[in-house]
Automatic annotation (TrEMBL), chains A, B, C, D:
<comment type="similarity">
    <text>Belongs to the extradiol ring-cleavage dioxygenase family.</text>
</comment>
<dbReference type="InterPro" id="IPR029068">
    <property type="entry name" value="Glyas_Bleomycin-R_OHBP_Dase"/>
</dbReference>
<keyword id="KW-0223">Dioxygenase</keyword>
<dbReference type="InterPro" id="IPR011981">
    <property type="entry name" value="DHPA_dOase_Mn/Fe"/>
</dbReference>
<feature type="domain" description="VOC">
    <location>
        <begin position="155"/>
        <end position="274"/>
    </location>
</feature>
<dbReference type="InterPro" id="IPR004360">
    <property type="entry name" value="Glyas_Fos-R_dOase_dom"/>
</dbReference>
<keyword id="KW-0408">Iron</keyword>
<protein>
    <submittedName>
        <fullName>3,4-dihydroxyphenylacetate 2,3-dioxygenase</fullName>
    </submittedName>
</protein>
<keyword id="KW-0058">Aromatic hydrocarbons catabolism</keyword>
<dbReference type="InterPro" id="IPR050383">
    <property type="entry name" value="GlyoxalaseI/FosfomycinResist"/>
</dbReference>
<dbReference type="InterPro" id="IPR044904">
    <property type="entry name" value="HPCD_C_sf"/>
</dbReference>
<keyword id="KW-0479">Metal-binding</keyword>
<dbReference type="GO" id="GO:0008198">
    <property type="term" value="F:ferrous iron binding"/>
</dbReference>
<feature type="domain" description="VOC">
    <location>
        <begin position="20"/>
        <end position="134"/>
    </location>
</feature>
<dbReference type="InterPro" id="IPR000486">
    <property type="entry name" value="Xdiol_ring_cleave_dOase_1/2"/>
</dbReference>
<dbReference type="InterPro" id="IPR037523">
    <property type="entry name" value="VOC_core"/>
</dbReference>
<keyword id="KW-0560">Oxidoreductase</keyword>
Length: 368, 368, 368, 368
């Protein structure tokens, strides 16, 4: 596969030392509606705001923000932000991406409040990545239980990116210093998705195969499973349960407990808790068979089609949505729940082994 | 409706004083497989067993058993057992049902181990009801945390019966001393289901509209939501996740947290926790609109079709399956997820208000 | 013991049919401070209020209130209120207590808002009991998860009364229709405490041996253990952790998870979850040895002395505090943690068997 | 303080790159009793065992073991093991400690099963530290929910060491590449304890001021608070509740939920869950006032004296217990719960502000 003409070269410049994913900037088309969703419903904390931007953080965060909502004409993801270890790592980011021929913009006073000396790039996969070290510190609200809602969001956990060619994306992220912790493949060697990390959790970002570049979701971590369920219960009470797209459930991949929501612009948000330590250099990579119906939900509950097909546009450095390139490899939805797809509960099971109550679910795909 | 010719008469004999639903007897076609499911997977406690029967109980129970698995040729429910307050209430049960012209069988030494002086009847709705007071006491394992599995089942909570004419069934159960706590109706006055109680929880049994008489499910209560999730996780680890039919989720009706499983014969088992006190004489009845998509799942997750259509046969006093009579009223599935059905998240919403990720789900019905 | 001259006679009048403990009226000396504690800190719901009274309820309650805070000169309990099954049961309460020669006051318009036709009595043990049936219904907030705090209080669960002679009190409560579910005794036959119920939980009230009549505590039920812990965390965040008197922990008696708080006047409030079904007529009574150090805390954590010695005064029908009569039987504190007391973890253990880390704790008593 | 004559020099050799604390070797005097405690009661997984050693691991671990129980004549800690990033880091450890003049022993085939090329040193503080990279991989049981007990232990989280001079120890650990995340001080500048990390949690080890070198405890992480409580409940059911020394509770320092147990030899084990991310280079250090009674328990529950005074001996490389040197700085117990100590709930509170129910507790110290 290294011979594919479009393999992204490995720069001679060392990559920046990425500490963790730290923030996402989302363009939203109705700032008041989005603020209501993230603040009044999900309970994120407003660090500061003005007429066009709301800066939000989680309850364990001491950095200025984890999420920026910015009013704009087209819903999209404007920046996937990573914190780097030192000021010099911002220089390294510049050199790394310039060597790759990417557009690079650096601002000494940052692109958002609370951040200084940041660089934004249009990466070779088409995503707007941002790197910075200098940040404004704010109160860490971890001990402020008087403020915690029942579904308290503690940390930004990860991003998830849709990209047509997952192995190509993985190799590039490895050049940037990320490591694969888990992936989904089939017997023919097609890779459907890969989870990649800098911090020692399952991921800082994942590469999901599909038409891209697009943002699949941004994920916030909470403490316990009941916190996730509290968000569902709250949405029900607010008659907003149709914000729930998928879950709650237990992932196979990552072993985490999850819930997927859709915000007022359709941006997907995951609530996530309890994956595992991956920080050892020889951390075992877990590879899942795409036909294992416990890979994406350990309980075998099917993935809804929209989860496979819908995602958010991403912007270039001019704020223009990036064109979306179609995936040419097999799609995970087609091979699992489509007319010709199948999934098994036990390796070796025939498709007919699914009980009556599961057959309807796993044949959803061909009816779309 | 009182004028319907088939209204079940109200006996002049007073009904027995039913304390609670206490046990279910299931005929299973492979006793070893069923024992594995209920004991090794779900963790119910074996009180005693022989070659044809296994007597199981929950961890808070002090009565001999809550579930009898009996080997037989056809999977079916053989007895819905209720405990009555005094020995005299068994006499009352005999008189009550004899006045109704039902078949009645009484055995001084009981129909099962651990029980004496029991009466079994073929009730006017076609269900095999059993009433007894005298029971053998066994150790209540509530404090035996050394034995509790992560998904500990604490109590038998309720039965759920499928019957074609819900209002007719409700009136009869009211004659037996039960009271409605919640129901599902539509604007035209059709009743789709009703929950009825003796003990002060939401129900000892529910009447679900459909082809009957059949057993919809038997439910066991656990303590906390994480206990329910532990059962899902365990089924995943055992590669038995296809035993999960629906859930986990939060019910609208009852406000309880739930999970539906199917046993090796397809008998449906619910795991249930945290409904509410209903013991006041003027407890407010909650009526749900059949089109409210939060009525059966507070989070708006759709009910799988099998949950509406599949159920277990019930036996008559000779052990012969009762013939199933078709429901003639509208079916809940048809009016909510069928071709002409619809559900809303907010009262007043048009069917088109469902977001893309929900439309696929709620259009399942017509594709069956 | 039936020969004791002060045995309370059993009236010929039938007792009222008590459904459940339903409300407590507390006199508080600083209404604003108490309102802050119960509403802003514990999250109880204000049904209505005026300058001298605040009417509060839990999230599952449909009756007007579970707790009345009334401004007054001396902190005390003014009424232990029970709901009775029918209007006629109020008549029965009047006859029952009048036959006992008790002071009885009945008001057609109730003693508090939200209640009509109530009777208050000064019972033979010196407690101000209230009985009513007619109540104003209010919204049951069980489904209003948008309002639930992390430590949501769902129901009033029980009262706990301090009285010098527990067996005498038990016999009287049995006359009133209550049944013992658990008690604490010693080998010599002294009874230290007894738990008594009408509703099918471990208790509607308990009799704790000590100088009385006094109110030991009023208890509210929540759903899960993490809800109890959330209250602790919140008190810590508010720098009000010194409101925590004892716990959290698991009771031996009742098997419930508990926490004891003290309100601004020192009234004791328990947060409680998950006891067990006691509604069968032959529910097994559990008797604990007073020397079993797991009886009051299943984990063997010692009871703080104040929990044994401090309690709230109760008022007579004129609003005057009842004189407190000393207990003459052995005190539970003295026989367990006092200079001559001892407790064991395993029956048969010598006092010396306590490990070093427990010895300091269980010798607290003699140092007071 | 840098002028103190006994400051440990900073080696010119770079320290090894420590990934995380990974294992503890405990000498136990009754291997069967210890195996019962850790395996049958706490549920750790046996990787392998022979007549003198049991190798145990947690459910998320893929390295051979996290705990070694070795039969021996005197209960003690034999090795605090850290995993290093590369084989070369073992060389670095050798050079680092040899430059410090410490005893150093390296074994190509490891000191225990499952490990190769390990070095053990007698560090300048007197502790037996071990460093290795090469390990045998075993099955990660994170997804094996069929094996998880209710109180599942997921990871080794940290060690805690008792040492007389905390600042001296901190400086040395900083030389080894650790960073302080939290500490406890007083206004006069005395440091009572410090938490230090390599992995991005609150600690891999902590330095607790006291007579040392001794092992204060080893801590295992679980997922949720109810898992911790399940261990308490289980100990109660087994009539082993006297193994509980302190807790459960919420720490102020670390914000984690905790429980302290004592094993059959008195070795202290903590069960721990949910501290926070500390991996940013500028992670804010949290300093607690020693008089803040929420620092060690956020709910203000007092620390039992044994927790301050008792700890395990540590062995030198010959297997001989290290002599214990007395702390000369003030002891945390003396200044907080002793005759002259005091603790406050709110900064500025006078000692008299403690309510009656807390006074007994916080005056424990002088009565020892």
């Amino acid at each position: 596969m290294d011979a594919t003409p479009d393999r992204i070269p490995t720069p001679a410049s060392p990559p920046p030392d990425v500490v963790r994913c730290v923030a996402m900037e989302l363009v939203v088309t109705d700032l008041a509606a989005s603020r209501h969703f993230y603040v009044d419903v999900l309970g994120l904390v407003v660090t500061e705001e003005d007429e066009t931007c709301v800066y939000l953080r989680t309850y364990e965060e001491f950095v200025h923000h984890n999420l920026v909502l910015r009013q704009g004409p087209v819903a999209a993801a404007a920046a996937f932000s990573f914190r780097v270890r030192s000021p010099q790592d911002v220089d390294r980011a510049v050199a790394f991406y310039e060597e790759l021929g990417c557009r690079v913009a650096r601002r000494a006073d940052g692109f958002t409040r609370g951040v200084r000396d940041a660089v934004r790039v249009q990466d070779p996969l088409g995503f707007p990545y941002e790197f910075f070290h200098e940040v404004e510190h704010v109160e860490r609200l971890a001990w402020r239980y008087d403020l915690h809602p029942p579904g308290v969001l503690a940390r930004l956990d990860h991003f998830n990116q849709v990209t047509p060619d997952v192995p190509r994306a993985v190799r590039h992220l490895e050049d940037l210093g990320f490591r694969v912790t888990e992936d989904i493949q089939d017997a023919a060697g097609t890779t459907y998705a890969a989870w990649m990390r800098r911090k020692p959790t399952v991921h800082d970002t994942a590469m999901t195969g599909g038409d891209g570049p697009r943002l699949h979701h941004v994920a916030f971590a909470t403490y316990e499973k009941h916190n996730v369920l509290a968000i569902c219960d709250r949405l029900g009470a607010l008659r907003m349960s149709d914000r729930i797209e998928r879950g709650p459930g237990r992932h196979g991949v990552s072993n985490a407990f999850y819930l997927y929501l859709r915000d007022p612009d359709g941006h997907r948000v995951e609530i996530y808790t309890q994956d595992y330590w991956t920080g050892d250099p020889d951390n075992p990579v877990v590879t899942w068979d795409v036909h294992d119906n416990q890979r994406r939900d350990w309980w075998g509950n099917p993935v809804v089609p929209s989860w496979y097909t819908e995602a958010s546009l991403v912007l270039d450095l001019d704020g223009v949505p990036q064109p979306v390139v179609a995936r040419t490899d097999s799609s995970e939805m087609a091979v699992t729940i489509g007319a010709d797809g199948f999934s098994y509960t036990r390796p070796g099971d025939a498709p007919e082994a699914l009980p009556s109550w599961k057959q309807g679910e796993y044949k959803l795909g061909h009816q779309l």
